[in-house]
Amino acid sequence: MLHTVIEKNSYQDSIVLMLLTNYLETLDGVNNVQVMMGTPANKDIFKTGGLATDELEAATPNDMVVVLDVDNEDLIDDVVKKAKVYLDEQSNGSDDENSGEERVKTWDKALEVAKDAPVALISVPGVYAASEVEKALDAGKNVFCFSDNVTIEDEARLKQMAHEKGLLLMGPDCGTGIANGLPLAFANRVRKGSIGIVGASGTGIQEVTAIIHKMGEGVTNAIGTGGRDLKAQVQGITFKDSIALLDQDPDVKVIVAISKPPAKEVRDDAVDLLRAAKKPVVAIFLGEKPEAHEKGLYRAYTLEETAKIAVGLLHGQEPTGNEDVAVKVPDVKLQPQQKYIKGYYSGGTLAYEAATLMNNTLGLHAKNGVDGSILKKDGYEVLDLGDDVFTQGRPHPMIDATKRKEMMVSAGQDPETAAILLDIVLGYGTTDDMAGDLKDTIIKVKADAKAEGRELPVIATIVGTDMDPQDYSQQQRTLAEAGVIICENNAQAVKTALAIVGHPVEETPLPILPEKPSNVKMPAVSDKLKEMLTATRFLNIGLESFAEAINESGGSAVQFDWKPIAGGNVELQKALLFLNKVDLKVGV
Fold first, then answer.
1. In angstroms, rounded to a whole number, what is the distance separating the alpha carbons of residues 434 and 425?
2. How far is CA 174 from CA 170, 328, 398, 505, 529, in A?
3. In a 10 Å sphere around its CB, with 0-12 CB exposed, 13-18 middle and 19+ buried, how is residue 484 labelled?
4. Of all helices (H) and strands (E), which one includes residue 7?
5. CA-based angle 182:475:376, to the nearest 5?
6. Chain centroid to CA 103: how far?
7. CB-based contacts of 315: which residues, under 8 Å, 6+ apart?
8. Which residue, 11, 38, 489, 508, shows the most beta carbons closer than 10 Å to its own?
């Protein structure tokens, strides 16, 4: 039976509420439960999940809503009490960790206390994000926007606004970055060095920076653009401004550019600008198989190759064609019916890389799937479990392994499955022990297959470094104890799976063609934009864990404990923003 509890004017962060939902689901007597703020979008999720009630309609965006399915009504008060204790513990834990640090509750105070912070991190619900980004840009801040569900029209408008102000808007839906060696959002800890990165992909940046770190080099800045930046509607505004910034950064010796497939005209403009760089450039457009390098502009096929070419160039060495290490094929005896590889990824770019390698090597000619399916052809399957279709109302798979475990069990029961691919992404913002969360399921899947006379290899890669908050070596040991084949990076993991099914990837060295002239001149960048290069202080609006990551890494972050104004009414918020701008102009 469904019961609804509405806590009026009790704003909580969405990730905290997702984790609270997971906790409440474990309580005895709870058949189903969902805890979210009462926004229109969240009400739709309640309905989709079979938890719609008449009382739900009375909730406002500032109200926390708990919908419970319990058979015994006596449990309701106990569940609500435990929910409040959980939230109090989260709040108290944060206060302890940030004792003595600066916290503000209004924009006016934030801009006063953080006037010397050149970058604002924004991680508020997407319905409010555009207005908050606009406020930060109007205040002269470069913006890193983690929030998603911003319209592409707002993204294009705000990025053009940032460009005209001489600022940078990273995102929306920007998952990771490094500013002056400091981690932003879902980032790994890597040593500071002489490679600068711009990427329209989050885990693509993480994979490349982690490999660079493992090779003994480092990254000074990694600028995320958000995944839609190179679409025709946005025209690569952030991507191109970032290239100019890195080219004029005295600490950057090599530039790396990473993107999933862009719009053709935007790609051509970006490549022309890369040719104008004074520094050597490595570019990877995932999904494209390059046919040649150009002198000064080198092309990569995998993220592993991208990192290794960049490190080679840092040492004055051009690509040799041996950047991708040949895999060692494990001794696995498959049954005749075992033909298909299944990939279950928490990182969208890693899923895309896996799909590309499989598609090209196997000659599948498969088009991108839908609903989180990057590849789905015959029995082959590669899923991005971080896609919206899998994360509505539940945490991202870097935090919560539930959906991935379900997929693995299902794949293991399929007698035609030949191998399962997984990624374990470490760093800030992810769970403390993903390998531990997956271990029992991996053991069960392999044991169940063995009981049916099948050997089922599970192949994994760990995206991370020895400097990450998690214990990298312990993650390796946990996977090894579960019988996992562990590879150094995602490209090697996919190639291992392909070799097991009898389709090894053939490596062909690329020729290096003469330098091609550029049709454009590298634009100068503003002093405001250059402040990003030496940033040590940040304004963090939203998820407190992002401020903690900066503070733990030697930077300083002012925490803005944001809550929606105007009762969460988006139209009223837009009107207030407009009136505030008019007042500012009148004041001038």
1. 8
2. 6, 35, 15, 32, 18
3. buried
4. strand 2-7
5. 90
6. 26
7. none
8. 489
Condensed to tens digits (0 to 9), the pLDDT of residues 571-588 reads 655 555 555 554 544 444
419 and 457 Cβ atoms separated by less than 8 Å: yes
* pTM score, whole prediction: 0.88
Q: For tokens 């769970």, name the residue.
A: 431
Which of 22-26, 55-59, 119-123 shows the highest mean pLDDT? 119-123
Tell me what percent of the chain is helix, strand and coil, each rounded to the nearest 5.
40, 20, 40
331: burial class by Cβ within 10 Å (0-12, 13-18, 19+)? Answer: exposed
Domains and CATH numbers, the chain: 2-93 (3.30.70), 103-322+520-560 (3.40.50.261), 340-500 (3.40.50.261)
Of the chain, the end-to-end C-alpha distance in Å amounts to 60
- pLDDT value at residue 394: 72
Amino acid at the residue 476: Q
- DSSP codes, 316-335: T----S--SPPPPPP-----
At 53, is the secondary structure helix, strand, or coil?
A: coil
CA atoms within 13 A on the CB side of 56: 24
SS3 labels along 103-118:
EECCHHHHHHHCCCCC
